[in-house]
Structures are given as structure tokens and as C-alpha cells.
Records
---
Amino acid sequence: MRRRLFAALYDTVNKGSEAAGMREERRQLLAGTEGATIEIGAGTGLNLEHYPEAVTRLVLAEPDRHMRRRLGRRVDALDRAAEVIDAPAGQLPFPDATFDTAVATLVLCSVPNQEVALAEIARVLKPNGRLLFIEHVRSGEPKLAKQQDRLRPLYNLVGCNPNRETLAAIEASALRVESVRHGEVPKAPRVERPMIIGTARR
């Protein structure tokens, strides 16, 4: 019931942030996608409209059935050629070196194990393939970071961990960070605002 409600409200809850700048952040980042592309935790499909013609194959991996149902409807509405699959970040059903690009936006906060998920992303990327990411992360401000720690159990009810040091996890993986920019998720609760946007290379 909780997951169904979260999926039903997801677009509405994020509408303000999307209109205030997140949609443009997605558009700019995803302009760099090309070739065979996999999106990890595609959710309701907020990235879908931003994939350019340079993407020759688009796989949308989403393990939550409620999200996946809404994702499928958006794929149909936009008449976009895409493969919607039931797969968690840590178990992608593809051979090594399948994809040119992987995309993760606001999803590495919710995977059960970041190390496993990033290892799996690296595995399915071709040599020199790229991960494009937008993630909300642990604050560098100690007072806010403590608040994120306190609220984590509440956020865990919908699978989110607002206090993860995601950039450090990417740097510790088999991926090499190419670029990263720190910012804030617009119009989000304060504990969700610290954000990183960037790319990493296999």
C-alpha cells in the first residue's frame, strides 16, 4: 500500500521542483546520452522526454511494479521506443559491456547497497562508457547532516536515505568521476536539497 501511494503521488510531489529547475537539469545532463542506454530506477519516467536521437536503444529498469505501471503508460503516451524491464540496480539481466551510457537520477539514495549497484552499473557499461547522475546527497554542513541522520528512518519508509555520501561511493567504484557539480534540488525539503550532478567513465 505504501509503495503504491508513493508511486501515485511521486509526480505531484515533485512537480514544483521539476518546474523550478530539475526538468532543465535533466535535459542538460541527458543531452549527453548516446548509443545503447540503460536508466537505473526509471521511476515514473520523468527523464523519458529528454533522451536525444543519439540514443539507439533505451532500456528502462524499474523494480517497483507500481512505478513500472506508470512508466509504461508514459512510454506509450510519448510513443517512445523503450524496453521497460523489472530489474533492481544490483541485478541487471545483461551481459558485460552491453551499454554505452547508464543514467541514475535520484535513485542511488534508495538502492539497498550502493557498492553493489555501482559495481553492476560498471559491469554492464562498455569500456569507456559513461554514467550520468543527478543525486541528492549528505550535506557538507554538519548541522544539516545530523538532521538528515535523524530523519533517515522516516525517509526509509519510502526507501530513501537522504544522508548517503554518494559521490564518495562513485569515486570508490570501478568508475572514474569526470565531472561533478554541487547544487540544490529546488523547492525540496531542506534535508533533500544537497545535490550532485555529474558524469563518470568506465
---
Amino acid sequence: MPILEAQALRKQYELGEHTVHALTGVDFVVEEGQFVAIMGASGSGKSTLLHLLGGLDKPSDGEVTLAGQRLSVLNDRQATLVRRHNVGFVFQFFNLLPTLTAEENVALPLIIDGQNLRKHQPRIDAMLELVGLADRRHHKPDQLSGGEQQRVSVARALVTEPSIVLADEPTGNLDSKTGKAIMELLRRSCDELGQTTVVVTHDPRAATYADRVVFLRDGQIIGEVLCTHVDGMDQRLSIIISAMEKLQL
């Protein structure tokens, strides 16, 4: 069974007298342990799709099945628990609490879930080690660089051992060198932890870290490429750019 599945997914918004059709019938499947990138121009619906996949928003029509749970049949509390126990989120603007240290921000999902932090301290330590911030654990966000803050965000997303990590433009607010380090970190968590990962990005270079790249335009999936057996980032980049040109993206 896929870890994540969308069927005939639609989303529309009312803006004054106008109706915006953000998604117009999306079918999308992610297998366990897969790393998928979703690409598209601004306004193509890619962030909307990610929010629906993670249960942060509800579709106008269609179904999302997350870790075997159909989200449409759950009430708000049930959906919150499914999301809390199965999804880790990484956002473009980090979304760290400024009054908490790096370690406390990483531990926040466990605190919200009422977990015993002493019991989970080895996991918190392991996540800080994974992202290279063990020596910065007591620093607050304003004492960290943008890249370090995003590393905290990644560690926070992974600390609960979620079924899937959803990342919305995780390199969009970073310079190219730091963005590369973040994508390498997400790739490493996929390879070493078996972490299923879905990343929304507009950057073809960020997409080269994925096994599969899905292209979105005007709220619909219009194509995809598989990169699993392609050696070398330059070759992957060439394939992705070629697909974008063919699809006129």
C-alpha cells in the first residue's frame, strides 16, 4: 500500500466574486521510502497540493489517504492526531519559536504530543547530531544562521520518526551553498533512515536529489521523470531541464 495517495484531488478558493481553481483533479501516489520532488511555476498549485497531502487543509473534492488513513472520514481531532504521528513538516521560513533553544524547538513535537522528553532524549540528541548542531543546541533562533535554523526545522520534522516528511520550498530562503547542504541532509535522511520525503521546489538543482520529479501546471500534473537509476547530478539536472522545456515550464 502506498504511504501517501491523492485521488481526484480538487481545491478551489473564493476571492471576492472570483473562484480560483488551485487544483483541478490530481492523482498522486508516493511509495514508502521514496524521495519525490514536485515542481511548477508560482501559482501552479504545488504548495496547495502539499498542504492537502499533509492534512493542513481540506480539499474541495477528492481524497487523501495518509499512512492508510482516509482523511475525509476523520473529524478535526482525529485528523490532527494522524498528522501529528505521521507527518513531519519543513517550511521555507523555518517556523521556529523564537523563545526556545534549538534543542527545545526540535523537541517541540514530542512536547505537544505529551511525550516524556527524558525517554526521548537519545532521539533528540541523534537528530541534533544528524543535522550537525549538537554544539549549538542551547542557541535560540536569532543566534543561528538561516541555514542552521533550517537544520533545526529538519531535525524537528524527523524527531517523531514520521511516516513522511513534507518540505515546502526548504531552500527558497537560503543561499545556494546552504540550500545544497539542506537538500543533501534530506537525501541522507531518506537513504539512512528510510524516510519518505516529498519536497515542493521551483529549483531544478534541488529537484536533482529526488528519485522522481513530478511537474504541476494550472493545478494539474502534466508529467514526471524518474531519476532513480541516473548517475550524477549533472545528468539528472539535464534530464529535469529537458523535461521542463518539453512541458514548456
---
Amino acid sequence: MARPSPVCAQFFSNVGHSFSHILTILYPTVVLVLEREWRMPYGELIALMFAGQVLFGVAALPAGWLGDRWSTLGMMVVFFIGSGVATVMTGFARNGVELAVGLALIGTFASIYHPVGMAWLIRAAANRGRALGINGIFGSVGLAVGPMIAGALCDLVSWRAAFIVPGAAAVAVGVALAVAWAIGAVDAPPVDLKPRPEPSRGDAVRAFFILSLTMLCSGLIGAAYMVMLPKVFAERLAGVTSGALGPGALVTVVFLCAATAQYVGGRLADRFAMRRVYLVGFALQAPLLLSAAAVTGWPVLALTVLMVFANYSCIPAENGLLAHFTPGKWRGTAYGAKFVLALGVAATAIPLIAYVHDTTGGFGSLYLLLGLLAAIVGVSALFLPDDRAVSGLPLTAAAEAAD
């Protein structure tokens, strides 16, 4: 038997984050091809991913519970193989119903990653902010390359290949994880590598209610952006984009530019109060979203890069706050609850996008709404408990207690 390696665990957790976003973000670019091939309106086609996005969030709660109560590694193997097989199946869809079912299955299996993979990562991390930041880079890269993979495979092969090829790759990684688990090269520690004192019950309850609101709002912003960006670039940069590859490549540029944001945010969350990092990040997003409402041409790309960078820099602080105010044995379940809000309920952004675009012919009013949501998060963060103290202890005393 091989000796368990923390590096091996981090590798599979980080790669899993990439795949969770690659597989769920393929469709918004594929839609640009299906509009022509199936002769269906954009609003009707994009609405087919609604059930999948809801399940991507809602199924995270039972997935997190199973990760806490059954097996972290077992659930991660199910994540890779299940989401990969579902994605391959979606590539063989013959009509809208089969496509919607395939997307729903992708969302269901992909939902496993965030509550299980992130809880696994945090338990094994000595430096949570840094670990979450690096993990966030992998997620951002997944969001970045997903649209370009889909666009390239659509234009060079077919829209079916845009699902089949990434799905097969996910299955291969799942098999590799199963083998590593079987030979003992990877494990899942039952407790935190670096335990920390828990906050008071009052602070935990207050943080729960405030974070429930902020995670819902931030989830709506993120879900809307992931879905609408290919169409935004196809329309507002029509002179420089063509086919599916052009808009998909611009989405890739956006998320690659923002890929380091989570690392920056993670380092800031290690050095400063996480609630302050959270507040500042969303305070910056609000004016950027409002400005983008009426902008066309290349300024759209610049504003989008800045907005996504600000948005992603907040994610390590948000995840760190949730971990800080949650008992370790319930962390997978807590992350599951988070992603019910951040991904499941936030999937209502999809019918909203379809309605706004088909009724107004654009996204201007949607940008205004997203700007308002960012402002709500920024104001709400002012009322979060102080995460630099535990049960009344200052940070230095808390650190000594943790040691």
C-alpha cells in the first residue's frame, strides 16, 4: 500500500473544482450553435439548463451530508464518474427534452464537488485562505476554458463533441482517483489538520442568517454572469466575434484574467478580517455592474474583467467565513446548504435572463438588478460578526488557543 499524500489529495480536489465548472458551463456556448441547427430561439434553448442549474445547487445539500456521514473519497469518485458519464450522454441528445434531462443529470452529479471537495480541502489545509485561493484558481480556470473548449469543439467538430470529449476526460480522472484510493495513495482526514477554536453560539447564528442573504445575492450575480456572457459578447462585440468560438474565447479571456483573483482574495483573507475583504469586494462590484448596463464595444470586455476579478476575490473570504462559523463535523453539510442558495436558488437567474433578453432584446435592465444585489451584499457584510476573534478572545489569544 502507498502512503497517503496531501499533495495527491489537493491535486484531485483542485482538478475536481475545474471539472465542476467546465462541465456545467459548456451549454451556454453550445446554445449559439443550436440556435442555427435546431432553429429555436435563444430564450427557449437557454431555459433548458434551468433544471440542471437548480440541481447543481439543491443536490449539494444531500451530497454534503453523505460526504460527512458516508465517505468523502467515495463521493468524489461518484462526482467524477457520474458527471462525466452524464455529460457524454448529453452529447447524444436528439431533442430538447433529452437535452434538458442530460443537463439535469450533469447538474446533479456536479453538485457533489463543492460541499464534499471543499470540506475535504479545508480539513487538510494548514493555511485555509491560501488553500482556498489556489483551489479557486482551478475553479476560475475551469470557468475560463469551458466556453473555449465548447466553442472550439463546436466549430471544429460538432456540438455533440463539446459534451462527449470533456465528459470522457472527467470519467478518466474519476477512475484514477478510485485507483489512488484503492492503493492508499490518497485519504480524507476525519478532523482538521490545524484545529481552531469555535465561535460563540450567538456569533454563529448571526453569521448564518447574514451569510444566507449574502450568498443568495452573490450566487445570483455569479450564475447570471456565467450564463449570459457568451450572448453578451456575441451581441455587444458582434463586429469582432463570429461563430461560437469568438464569444467563447472572450469568456475565456475574462476568467483567465480573473483566475488569480481568488488567490489574491485568499491571501487577503489570511491577513485581514474576512468580513472586510468580503465587504470591499462587493462594494467595488456594484458601480462596475451599473456602468456595464449601457456600454458596448471593447469597454464591455474591460468592465467585465474588472467585475469578475472583484467578484472572485470575495469567494475565499465567503468560504472562510462559512468554515469559521460552522462546527467541523458539519462542514460538508454547511457547504451543501450554501450551494443550495448560491447555485440552486440562484438558478432562477436563467429564466430571468431568458425573459429579459426576449422581451427587451438585451441585458441592460439585468445589469442594473445585479448592481443592486452587489450593493445589498456590501451593506449586509457590515453586520457580520468579527471573524478575527473567537468567543471574545482577540486574534492572538485565539491563535494560541488553537495551538
